[in-house]
């Protein structure tokens, strides 16, 4: 990036771009494709105005046209001389804006000129001094452009030392005397910084320390600009650009001087954030590569000094702000923001405890300030307008800090990987607590805002979704540290359970399939499956049933709570239902009964049926009788709960899977199987005959198809009851549907190789076919009220 800036014409524009500044610095609206005719005409207007000494609106419009085309035009020495002549006029009153525009064109000249005239530059400096000495002309934009062009003059290698000294003196005097003007307009700050950057890149050492004092001290002035993340990034990349120039030109003296004045000496008159960002800029510049010999040694010293300064600032934050408790004060917040973005931009930095703790705090309070957002909205809900908070959230989404959250998370994980075991444990708990709080607080905000402020809720969830990605990447880094053979079983199990519980808390925000997520899940589940204790610990972390259906939180007193609308909570429970089957063999029947059973059918989702199937097919030798008994008890509740909300909530695929599993894994002749068959037949009877003969996807027809499938699945003790119940159902179907059902049954029986079951099925099918082929209308018309059930009983 430093090389890119070096090849750029305008340093201030590059600073705006790399800092993510949304404030335009254009003096006039840019014209990307000016015509040659319009450019020629503009210069002609300026020349004519100078000759006639008549600087009217046409003259001003000509200057604006040229400045609007600054990226494409080239200002030659004769044209620069024309511009300098305008600045030198003493007896004619010029529009105040024209001075700023003329200076801008002189800046275009000096930045694009291959070898500008030394004499012409000297005259230009004197003319600029004359303009700024007249305080009537002083405007913020004029001061900023004067600083910029003076710095650009001083940066030209071919100019003499005397001319450069004049430029540097003018620049320093302007900033020392008129800093309040510069600080009054945000768009001028990158212009001034670029001017200082050019000056620092001058071949002279004259006024060097004075320039550093201005760069790092102006932020502490009462009327100077205020330190922000955007300005911090400008300083970072400005110093990167300057120091990269020192490295390329082998300016060892300047590197040494910069290190001594900025990095190795603490000065009260220097803003901490500015020095910190400058140190990060040095680190970034040093990663471009090292030369050999003395230069390489000096660059290494410079980088070491920068890293020590970064750690020193982190230590200040740790000792003063106690970042482990997540500070959010006005003083610490901006510095933490700079901390996060700087470590993301400057590349690899030697690991230290203060750096890790500061970066953790920055992530959890500044990059993802969800705690502050939730608290603010909950306190103000129903009392204050929501508009200002919507703007606050929108601004954070567009902020460069949030946009680089991925890079910041990467830097955080790199610091974590090299930390001591004690600090790793501290940071892990900070992240896991963040997940828990995110779950609890987002439940509240989602219930409060859903259907009322959906746009605002969506913006908040964008921040939360990004924090989910951070949690996943961090959790993967944690598994690589602790889920290794050399780590104790206790530490591995504790870590695995905490990751699973944390993932359950942020499950609501998982909208894409992440390889890092899948890898982490596989690693921790593999560890949990090795022992009963972590499995039980994970299951016991499920929120209690009462807290799910009737929470006593303060926010539920402000709204009418309906657990079925609590999507955040539902996502968490579904996560548990999906994970528990992977370790169901480690879970005792008592643990399943006490924690899982009451919760698994709160919402009868597909995961509930999968979990039931896993439990019914599981075995644990130490409690075989107790487990079997509970399985049968559970099936009664399962059938009742599933069918009462079928088809509205219960998915048929899940129901079919659960029923197939229970008939295969419960003991032969189990009352629970009889009850299941009875419940299915009873449910099928509630559907109209149209539903039972319609499309295969119709709910009633699906139940009938499931009953037909059970003919070849239930044990021989239950089969007679199933055949009788199924026949009672089939006999009531219309003729066409009866034929289809009989055809399916004949196909099943024909393909069956079950020598025990097949004879009974053949006899039953013949009787069922006979009853279906009878003309029931004629039977009823004969005056005989034949009970079909009795007929079936007699024949079957």
UniProtKB/TrEMBL annotation:
<protein>
    <recommendedName>
        <fullName>Obscurin-like protein</fullName>
    </recommendedName>
</protein>
């Amino acid at each position: 990036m430093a090389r890119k800036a070096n090849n750029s014409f305008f340093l201030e524009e590059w600073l705006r771009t790399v800092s993510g500044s949304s404030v335009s610095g254009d003096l006039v609206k840019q014209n990307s494709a000016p015509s040659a005719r319009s450019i020629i005409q503009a210069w002609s207007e300026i020349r004519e105005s100078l000759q006639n000494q008549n600087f009217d609106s046409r003259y001003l419009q000509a200057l604006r046209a040229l400045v609007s085309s600054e990226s494409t035009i080239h200002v030659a020495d004769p044209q620069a001389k024309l511009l300098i002549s305008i600045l030198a006029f003493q007896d004619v009153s010029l529009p105040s804006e024209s001075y700023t525009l003329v200076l801008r064109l002189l800046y275009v000249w000096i930045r694009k000129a291959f070898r500008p005239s030394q004499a012409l530059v000297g005259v230009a400096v004197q003319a600029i001094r004359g303009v700024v000495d007249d305080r009537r002309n002083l405007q913020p934009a004029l001061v900023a452009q004067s600083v910029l062009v003076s710095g650009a003059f001083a940066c030209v290698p071919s100019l003499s030392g005397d001319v450069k000294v004049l430029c540097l003196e003018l620049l320093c005097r302007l900033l020392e005397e008129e800093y309040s003007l510069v600080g009054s307009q945000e768009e001028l700050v990158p212009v001034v910084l670029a001017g200082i950057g050019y000056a620092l890149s001058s071949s002279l050492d004259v006024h060097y320390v004075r320039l550093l004092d201005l760069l790092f001290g102006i932020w502490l002035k009462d009327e100077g600009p205020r330190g922000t993340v955007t300005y911090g990034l400008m300083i970072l990349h400005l110093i990167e650009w300057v120091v990269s120039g020192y490295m390329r030109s082998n300016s060892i003296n300047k590197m040494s001087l910069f290190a001594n004045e900025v990095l190795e000496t603490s000065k009260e008159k220097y803003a901490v954030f500015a020095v910190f960002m400058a140190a990060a800029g040095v680190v970034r510049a040093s990663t471009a590569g090292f030369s050999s010999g003395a230069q390489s040694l000096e660059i290494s010293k410079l980088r070491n000094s920068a890293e020590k300064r970064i750690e020193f600032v982190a230590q200040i934050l740790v000792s003063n702000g106690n970042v482990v408790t997540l500070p959010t004060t006005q003083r610490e917040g901006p510095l933490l923001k700079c901390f996060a973005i700087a470590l993301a931009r400057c590349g690899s930095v030697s690991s230290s405890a203060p750096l890790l703790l500061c970066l953790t705090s920055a992530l959890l309070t500044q990059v993802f300030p969800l705690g502050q957002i939730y608290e603010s909205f909950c306190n103000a809900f129903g009392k204050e307008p929501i508009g200002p908070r919507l703007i606050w959230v929108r601004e954070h989404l567009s902020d460069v800090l949030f946009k680089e959250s991925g890079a910041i998370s990467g830097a955080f994980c790199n610091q974590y990987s090299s930390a001591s075991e004690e600090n790793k444990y501290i940071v892990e708990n900070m992240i896991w607590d963040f997940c828990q709080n995110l779950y609890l607080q987002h439940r509240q905000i989602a219930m409060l805002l859903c259907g009322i402020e959906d746009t605002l809720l969506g913006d908040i969830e964008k921040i939360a979704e990004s924090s989910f990605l951070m949690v996943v990447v961090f959790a993967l880094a944690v598994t690589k540290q602790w889920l290794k053979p050399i780590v104790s079983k206790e530490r591995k199990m504790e870590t695995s359970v905490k990751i699973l519980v944390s993932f359950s808390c942020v499950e609501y925000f998982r909208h894409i399939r992440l390889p890092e997520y899948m890898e982490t899940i596989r690693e921790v589940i593999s560890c949990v499956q090795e022992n009963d204790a972590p499995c039980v610990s994970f299951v016991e972390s499920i929120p209690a049933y009462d807290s799910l259906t009737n929470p006593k939180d303060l926010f539920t007193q402000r709204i009418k709570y309906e657990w079925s609308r609590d999507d955040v909570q539902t996502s968490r429970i579904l996560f548990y239902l999906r994970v528990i089957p992977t370790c169901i063999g480690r879970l005792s029947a008592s643990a399943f009964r006490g924690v899982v059973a009451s919760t698994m059918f709160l919402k009868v989702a597909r995961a509930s049926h999968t979990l039931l199937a896993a439990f019914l097919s599981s075995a644990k030798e130490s409690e075989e009788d107790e487990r079997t008994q509970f399985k049968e008890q559970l099936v009664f509740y399962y059938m009742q709960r599933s069918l009462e909300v079928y088809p509205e909530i219960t998915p048929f695929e899940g129901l079919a899977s659960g029923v197939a599993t229970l008939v295969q894994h419960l003991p032969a002749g189990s009352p629970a199987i009889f009850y299941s068959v009875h419940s299915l037949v009873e449910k099928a009877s509630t559907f109209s005959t149209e539903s039972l003969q319609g499309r295969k996807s119709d709910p009633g027809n699906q139940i009938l198809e499931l009953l037909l499938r059970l003919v070849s699945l239930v044990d021989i003790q239950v089969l007679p009851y199933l055949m009788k119940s199924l026949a009672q159902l089939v006999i009531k179907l219309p003729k066409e549907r009866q034929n289809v059902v009989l055809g399916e049954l004949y196909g099943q029986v024909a393909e069956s190789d079950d020598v025990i079951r097949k004879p009974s099925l053949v006899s039953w099918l013949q009787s069922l076919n006979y009853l279906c082929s009878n003309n029931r209308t004629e039977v009823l018309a004969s005056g005989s009220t034949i009970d079909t059930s009795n007929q079936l009983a007699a024949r079957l």
